[in-house]
Amino acid sequence: MEEGMSLNQNDYGNNWERVVIGKEEKIPPKETSRYVWACDNLIGKKILELGCGCGYGLRLLPDDIDYIGVDNEDKIIEFARQHYDDKGTFIVSDLKNIDFRGYDTIIAFEILEHISYGKELAQSLKKYCKCLMITVPYNEPKGFWGEHHVLHNLVEKDFPDFDIKYILYTGEISDKPIPDRNDNLMLMKWTKA
Q: Residue 181 is part of a domain; what is its CATH number?
């Protein structure tokens, strides 16, 4: 088990597809770096997070935001409510049932690779917010991260008009991915002109 990973992972982690971290547990570097980056790049106070999982990202986001986290699994949202409902609101919903209007920033960390229309969703979300922040596995070959990913080999050209950096396996944010590693993540930001 990676240092800082929750013992709850086996119960809630979707076969290790989700990181599950309770309120008092250490957040691993790779998980920390994406939310510290998000915190530094937020626009406005109304924040929507798609695929919020257990909600641990709220520990790293500002306290004064109006946060709604959405995930499609009852069990993980129940965990989020038990651990983080003092900082945000969590709802169970399918993406197709969400009203995306009215948010300043939308966060979608490692969710788009799970849906067949993920690249299209990234583009359509732009019309609803001032800032859109996304992570996806960089150039991931089929099967590397498991059976739940339906989009593979995602690269920069799949996300036009985004500023792109990379999260390395160490948690470091870089301007370039590490060659020949399949565990780099693309870290992307789009802001309304």
A: 3.40.50.150
